[in-house]
Amino acid sequence: MHTVHFPNKILPYLLLAPQIILTLVFFFWPASQAIYQSMLREDPFGLKSTFVGFANFSAILSDQNYLQSFQVTIVFSVLTALVSMAVALLLATAADKVVRGQTFYRTLLIWPYAVAPAVAGMLWLFMFNPAMGTLAYLLRSTGFAWDPLLKGDQAMGLIVVAAAWKQISYNFLFFVAGLQAIPKSLIEAASIDGARGSRRFWTIIFPLLAPTTFFLLVVNTVYAFFDTFGIIHAVTGGGPAKATETLVYKVYNDGFVNLNLGSSAAQSVILMIIVIGLTAFQFRFVEKRVHYG
């Protein structure tokens, strides 16, 4: 084993300094400000602040609208992660079997990741708009009463599809890399032993993809909690009747629309704690079932 030695003792700290500065400025400083502001009650114009301790947190946790947003977030996160990862795994296994034009097909499947969340939301909104959407017209022509602007379950389905479509390319990249890392000798040995089709996939390939699947599970959970704001804002705006108002969107509504800054800051702190807790839970319990053999 070779050990790297820096001739200059200051050089390692200089190399780490930009990342440390960015972390302090863009994470720890805003997080500390949010924690401090969550214990204040401010008027909408920011002219007066009153220290109220944990009153904002107690009011939030007893608010039925907040509890509804929590339920909406759980449903939305689970559905988005399952749909995006399942479709990405299906596409990755299909692309891995392609011999000619493999690079071309993979490039096409990666492109959607470059689309901004708000743009992705608008694309799906136009396609499924009840008044002028092409796919909405096809749904109505089959007799299905499609109207996500009035029906909460349909609105939830629309943002799940839009958010999952945006994330499929990211998951696809990692699943393809995971499939390429599986030794071909194991697949050939399984084929010789008589394992075919789905049996070979679930007994050989999928268990070997466990580290990749676990990583993507963590990433997709964080994505659904935080990075889907632009999609929800563009497609439904949290409606109808708050049916698609997730926790991160409620933070925006209460803070920037209703100017309830103390409550909004407290909600952001709770959201941060929830995501940290979910990630810790996944590493503590889910990772035990992951095989890195």
From TrEMBL:
Keywords: Cell inner membrane, Cell membrane, Membrane, Transmembrane, Transmembrane helix, Transport. Part of the ABC transporter complex UgpBAEC involved in sn-glycerol-3-phosphate (G3P) import. Probably responsible for the translocation of the substrate across the membrane. The chain crosses the membrane at residues 12-31, 70-92, 104-127, 155-180, 201-226, 265-286. GO terms for biological process: transmembrane transport. InterPro entries: MetI-like, MetI-like_sf, UgpAE/MalFG_permease. It comes from the Bacteria. This is sn-glycerol-3-phosphate transport system permease protein UgpA. It holds the Pfam family BPD_transp_1. It is found in: Cell inner membrane; Cell membrane. The complex is composed of two ATP-binding proteins (UgpC), two transmembrane proteins (UgpA and UgpE) and a solute-binding protein (UgpB). PANTHER family: BLL4140 PROTEIN (PTHR43227), SN-GLYCEROL-3-PHOSPHATE TRANSPORT SYSTEM PERMEASE PROTEIN UGPA (PTHR43227:SF9). Its main location: membrane. It is a multi-pass membrane protein. GO terms for cellular component: plasma membrane. It comes from Peteryoungia ipomoeae. Residues 70-282 form the ABC transmembrane type-1 domain. Belongs to the binding-protein-dependent transport system permease family.
